[in-house]
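Ticket #4471: complex job returned nothing on first submit. Input attached below:
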Amino acid sequence: MEVGFLGLGIMGKAMSTNLLKHGFKVTVWNRTLSKCDELVEHGASVCESPAEVIKKCKYTIAMLSDPCAALSVVFDKGGVLEQICEGKGYIDMSTVDAETSLKINEAITGKGGRFVEGPVSGSKKPAEDGQLIILAAGDKALFEESIPAFDVLGKRSFFLGQVGNGAKMKLIVNMIMGSMMNAFSEGLVLADKSGLSSDTLLDILDLGAMTNPMFKGKGPSMNKSSYPPAFPLKHQQKDMRLALALGDENAVSMPVAAAANEAFKKARSLGLGDLDFSAVIEAVKFSRE
Ligand SMILES: NC(=O)C1=CN([C@@H]2O[C@H](COP(=O)(O)OP(=O)(O)OC[C@H]3O[C@@H](n4cnc5c(N)ncnc54)[C@H](OP(=O)(O)O)[C@@H]3O)[C@@H](O)[C@H]2O)C=CC1
Ligand SMILES: O=CC(=O)O
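Support reply: We reran it on our side without changes. The output follows.
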């Protein structure tokens, strides 16, 4: 199977490398073209614009930072829309809001192409290990044709119906994750300020009903104030913002998520946006100093 891949950030690089390892022919494009070099070493071909990738490949996957990037890659000069046509499929796996996804769907299908949104749950390591959880929606036939690729990228693929449902589900999952990360950060800081060992707190949490891979994976490095970016904080804040907008639309009161969003905003204002989202603990420490 030949696929195009647009966007070689933390996730896109891991996902496209995985596809190459599993025998897919992959043609890549990235806004900063030099980031394609490493993929070429693994056997990928490169194009100079999203439109060129679409022209070459029957199926193209995108993994871009946010709604603005997802729209730009489709609608701008040299973008997806210039070459999408009947017989081609576009699968956008970026985390965006439903409105963005619907706009892209309308434009792609208006040109005779097919569209699936497929945001993923799981971070850098699950992307490297092909263990993502894929939250797809849109064209069912394209979803089914994409299963060989999804099976390489993920451990489970959900088909959630109409375009927008994948985006909404992903935002809800990440809203829960961002809120949990804040409660966890407050607990670690409170333990430390109360004269208790935050490492012992991790051991206690791990033995009880609240044990989870996120606390287990991030806790030890948070206790060392180390935040190598797996999921950049600026993207987690984007997801909180978009999830809160979804809450507004549906009149769902979400004070916990709103407070968590404020902490992520604070962390961004402290210059921590490119670090891992667990760096939000620095905003918690800051507010108590
Ligand atoms: N990291 C993670 O753990 C996870 C991330 N996600 C989601 O996946 C998506 C990608 O995340 P991640 O790989 O971490 O992000 P990165 O910030 O590492 O990569 C972002 C990618 O988007 C590209 N990009 C940004 N703006 C534009 C633009 N205006 N036009 C074209 N390309 C653009 C970047 O290109 P360039 O290299 O030129 O800057 C880069 O390829 C996000 O939506 C994120 O929320 C989902 C699950 C897990
Ligand atoms: O979107 C981030 C993730 O870890 O999932």
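Strands lie at 2-6, 25-29, 45-46, 59-62, 89-92, 114-117, 120-121, 132-138, 154-159. Closing as resolved unless it happens again.
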